[in-house]
Design goal:
The complex is a heterodimer of chains A (about 425) and B (about 290).
Chain A: H1 2-18, H2 23-49, H3 64-77, H4 79-88, H5 92-95, H6 98-119, H7 142-169, H8 176-202, H9 215-241, H10 248-279, H11 284-291, H12 301-319, H13 321-325, H14 327-345, H15 347-354, H16 369-398
Helix pairs in contact in A: 2-16, 3-6, 3-8, 3-9, 3-15, 4-6, 4-8, 6-7, 6-16, 7-8, 8-9, 9-10, 9-14, 10-12, 11-15, 12-14, 14-15
Chain B: H1 6-31, H2 41-59, E1 64-66, E2 76-81, H3 90-98, E3 111-116, E4 140-145, H4 154-158, E5 164-166, E6 172-174, H5 184-188, E7 195-196, E8 211-213, E9 225-226, H6 232-235, H7 242-246, E10 252-256, H8 263-270, E11 272-274, E12 286-290
Parallel strand pairs in B: 1-8, 2-12
Antiparallel strand pairs in B: 2-10, 3-4, 5-6, 7-9, 11-12
The chains are: A mainly alpha (about 425), B alpha+beta (about 290).
Chain lengths: ~425, ~290
């Protein structure tokens, strides 16, 4: 019963923490809730009328939703970039912020699963994927693999984070026999979720733009840029608004790792572009649609070059030590990386992969307002989850939210003995 | 394994339990109930009767839903004479009527591509929206494309729920009641043969073909994928697909690949035959040939 009482105190304490905050916190929550409501209304309409309210059609059968899904799998995977140095090399400054990376991973996976859910035509049949009631076409379908690894990754990260935080709440050190193996498992799993997601596209011979073995390494490289970019923002916000101390050194180290990842990303993109343009086969069409457009079909061209420019700019800002130690240029670099990777991974991967379609037709896809609203709603929901988890996790790490059995006796159920 | 011997031991244990969990998961997956089409015979019959009742009420006319199985010793194949096709699109609309495709939003299982004679079979310069006063147009030939019923089908491989598969007579089918609408098969299909019901399909009153097959032309719900089934409701009853019957120039040939005396075997053995996108190793059972 001690456990039950203690857990109850943990839950009620967390709720109390979540309900307290300055005006800015409430404004942020209100903003997120408004976006969620707007997304919910748009999604209800989509469910009622069908996916015809999106801009997707038979020619371009995946669009904005699946693009966001792909990007967010990368964000989720990127937690590992912090876990590796923290646990393998026991690098202390990063170690204390690993928990936040894993919280980010948990929120990102929530968003990933939601993006898949809003994309499918029959969300009411989601259970068809879930054995023993449904039938998961494993191991043939890479999508079945993705379902498995994403959910497993979610569980691993969730268990590690809640265990560490709950133990801290009860004033004990986390259990090494549980955490170390799970963290060691989460490293190959992080690489795994993104590799499997890349293979999802990579394995389709029908789409030459995706059917390139460079896709998985390039996915990982860009993920290891964009994931930490979000985290660097979060860490600065935490430092600003809480007593939480994050050493400059940790932030600079992450920025340095991001520069190497961005170099790799640009190199792999260059290698792919070389192969396509120099060999100049009919498969070049898709790359050309992205970078220069086909005839009058040029919708994506501004996005393509913005992504290239942003990624190059970010690389320069992060590779120069003075620039990554200057807060203004560091944040500009983060913004550039985030935007650059978001464009290249979202629109830049999915849409040119399907344009021209399998029979050579060019249908220019551009998301509708409904798609944008639903996507914004999903992002808001993910950020809401992340915010609320941070609201509890930060005081625990700071030792402000600790179990105090004596002061909380009134919470104990009367019948408990 | 001295002082730090602890860590590897834990890792091994974790590995063992993970392997056990994976094995358990696999067994669970393999033993779980199958798709609706694979339910016991009695329940299937009842399910079909329910469907018939539902469709009949919905369309105000008696509808039959058959589950005719594949015929033994039969593997269907198709051949299309490119030199005969005149691009009239009668097959497209014949198919729509036979197979109860949605009229709005418009779904077409057959796509006729107009191509330049100068360029040959080249999808880059294909035009599916040609509007000619009179066909065939000067300098053009026509390439109708529908499901190629691949032996090595990329679409069935990728389906996460096993809602689409190849039947023993070689027809690739979809269970519309099991498809979750993820559209992975559409991304995987190199022939643009799979079509999604982006909105609720509409068929005008009186236009419904009431003789349907569970895996073929029965009315589909919104949010699922559909495609050509070689008119499974006809071919399994020994009839030609609607597109073969409607073609005014006899460009379309259909038959049993396993019968040495069939027309399809004659075409394959005596004509210059090609398949689309041969390099992808999909091994279509839909052949194109130049008859003249």
């Amino acid at each position: 019963m001690t456990f039950a009482r203690r857990f109850l105190r943990f839950v009620s304490g967390s709720v109390r923490l979540i309900l307290q905050g300055p005006g800015l916190y409430w404004a942020w929550l209100a903003f997120l809730l408004a976006l969620i409501a707007s997304g919910g209304v748009a999604y209800a309409r989509q469910v009622g009328t069908g996916l015809v309210v999106t801009a997707m059609r038979d020619q371009v059968s995946w669009g904005f939703y699946i693009g966001n899904f792909t990007f967010l799998v990368g964000v989720a995977a990127a937690a590992v970039v912090l876990v590796i140095p923290a646990y393998i090399y026991d690098w202390k400054p990063i170690r204390e912020i690993v928990v936040y990376g894993e919280l980010l991973a948990v929120s990102a996976i929530v968003m990933c699963l939601l993006f898949v859910l809003v994309d499918i035509g029959r969300p009411d049949r989601f259970w068809h994927l879930v054995p023993p009631w449904g039938h998961l076409n494993f191991p043939q379908s890479i999508l079945a693999w993705d379902v498995l690894v994403l959910n497993l990754y979610f569980v691993v990260n969730f268990v590690v984070v809640t265990h560490i935080l709950y133990r801290a709440f009860t004033g004990r050190h986390y259990d090494k026999r549980l955490v170390v193996p799970l963290v060691l498992l989460s490293i190959p799993m992080a690489v795994g979720i993104h590799t499997v997601t890349a293979f999802l596209y990579n394995g389709l011979a029908a789409r030459p733009y995706w059917n390139s073995s460079i896709l998985a390494p390039q996915f990982l490289a860009s993920a290891f840029c964009s994931g930490p970019a979000i985290l660097l923002f979060v860490l600065q916000v935490l430092r600003r608004f809480t007593r939480f101390e994050i050493q400059d050194e940790a932030i600079w180290k992450i920025a340095e790792l991001m520069a190497y990842a961005m170099f790799l990303n640009l190199f792999l993109h260059g290698a792919e572009a070389f192969k396509e343009y120099y060999s100049d086969t009919e498969h070049l069409l898709f790359t050309r649609y992205w970078y220069s457009g086909l005839g009058e079909h040029r919708t994506l061209v501004p996005y393509a070059w913005s992504a290239v420019g942003l990624n190059l700019a970010a690389f320069v800002l992060f590779i120069v030590p003075a620039a990554r130690r200057n807060w203004v240029t560091l944040n500009l670099g983060c913004l550039a990386i985030y935007a650059g990777c978001y464009i290249e991974k979202g629109m830049g991967l999915i849409i040119p992969g399907l344009t021209p379609d399998a029979l050579g037709e060019i249908y220019e896809y551009y998301p509708t307002i409904t798609e944008l609203r639903v996507a914004a709603g999903v992002f808001a929901l993910g950020f809401l989850v992340f915010t609320l988890m941070l609201k509890v996790a930060v005081p625990i790490s700071l030792g402000e939210f600790l179990d105090q059995p004596d002061g909380e006796r009134h919470l104990r159920p009367a019948s408990a003995s | 394994m001295e002082p730090e011997g602890r860590a590897p031991r834990v890792t091994r244990r974790t590995f063992a339990s993970c392997a056990a969990a994976a094995a358990a998961g696999w067994i669970l997956t393999a033993c779980g109930p199958r798709r609706l089409y694979e339910v016991p015979r009695e329940r299937l019959k009842k399910g079909l009767a329910d469907l018939e009742r539902r469709y009949s009420a919905q369309y105000g006319t008696p509808v039959t839903v058959a589950d005719t199985p594949p015929m033994p010793g039969v593997e269907f194949a198709y051949a299309l004479d490119i030199s005969r096709c005149i691009g009239c699109r009668r097959c497209v609309y014949g198919c729509v009527e036979e197979n109860n495709q949605s009229r709005n939003p418009q779904v077409h299982w057959i796509r006729v591509l107009a191509m330049d004679k100068e360029k040959g079979v080249d999808f880059t310069h294909a035009d599916p929206y040609y509007e000619a006063k009179e066909v065939p147009e000067e300098g053009h030939f026509y390439l109708p494309v529908q499901c190629q019923q691949c032996r090595n089908a990329p679409c069935t491989k990728v389906c996460p729920t096993g809602a689409t598969w190849t039947e023993r007579d070689g027809i690739v089918v979809i269970d519309y009641d099991w498809c979750i609408g993820c559209r992975y098969c559409m991304a995987a299909c190199p022939y643009g043969a799979r079509h999604f019901n982006w909105g609720a399909p509409t068929i005008p009153t009186g236009a419904l073909n009431t003789s349907t097959h569970y895996l073929g032309n029965r009315p589909r719900p919104a949010g699922v994928v559909e495609k050509c089934t070689f008119c499974i409701q006809r071919s399994r009853a020994g009839r030609y697909p609607a597109c073969v019957e409607v073609c005014p120039v006899g460009a379309r040939k259909f038959g049993n690949l396993l019968d040495p005396d069939s027309e399809i075997r004659y075409v394959i053995e005596h004509k210059r035959v090609l398949v689309l996108k041969q390099d992808l190793n999909t091994m279509p059972k839909f052949f194109y040939f130049y008859g003249t």
